[in-house]
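User: Predict the structure for this protein chain, please.
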Amino acid sequence: MGISSKVLDLSLRPLRVTGQEMYPATLMMCKLLWFLLFASYYHTKFQGLPHLPLLPILDILRPVEGLYNSTLKTAYWLGGFALLFNLRVRLAAFMLGVIVLLIILSDRTHYRNHTFICGCAFILAACHKKDERPWLLIIQLTVVYIAAGLNKLWEVDWRSGQFMAHWLRGNSWFNWFAEYFGKLGFGQFLAYLTITFEVGMGLLFLSKRWLPVAVWCAVGFHIGLYVLLGGQTFGHFLQSALVVMIATVSWNSEPLTLRLPKPPNKLLLLFKRVLDPNSQFEISVHNSFGFTQNELGKFDGIGALRSATLRSPWFYWWGLLSMIVLHRYIQHPPGYYITSFLMISLFALSFPYETLQKNIRGTQVS
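Assistant: Here is the predicted structure, written as structure tokens:
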């Protein structure tokens, strides 16, 4: 293997998720979560700790504050490097989760729902074996959504509709409907709709049969909030929730067959190596161009391409990068519209057609 080939192999490691210590979709989630924290400047949190710690016992570290902060920062970078380049990924994920939780415990002002979710997701992902589906992460999603719904139900302002009426008072579509139904009335409707949806999604996550449908509904719920609320992400809660749901993707081992009318040349094989670091594609010479995949049934054409796209690391990396760049660096109107278009396209692409079709057939047979 030449030097250029070794460099290419090393540069593709962040995209490789098969053949590692974790289930591929879970490892993909962990890599993106670390990058999301990095893009959110989480590495700037390693200073002045401990400060107003949630655990008072951490105050004993004040005399060695510099050493404590340097140790956390070094471990954060080492864990991220190990995760990206597939070096003891379970240990790296566990270490990153502990670091995130330690920062929260060391400084109560650093507590955010989205970072807490990331820390828990790292630790729970590390608890799963190589070929084990991430059931602990599914339970985490269940707890997050049910707890969010019940917490809203407990609040008087939510039940009366006052919270929604006050929060959305400057929203044009809310004001339009409020003219017909009243601000409190429409606010109360939206509040109970949100509560019902969150609790319902949480319960649906527990059903293995309907899990893809639950994920699709949750993705649509967050994308809908982003579009209707003019681009609000609630810190990076939107991105964190979408990334954690990647762990539920069924990453089947059978590759997709790309049919070509003639044998591929060297340039095409090089492109395949770059665009397909996990060997998800096989090339077959056929009299027509197309895609075929035989897994749990037969998918052909668009169905096969959709199935392979959801197992492509490039799809998730570019999706997250696009959201970060568009939301942070592009001015609001164009950035918001482009991001909304991309997320609605993601929502349409992830439609669980095969799951619905199989479940409906199973219901009719029974």
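The longest helix spans residues 183-205.
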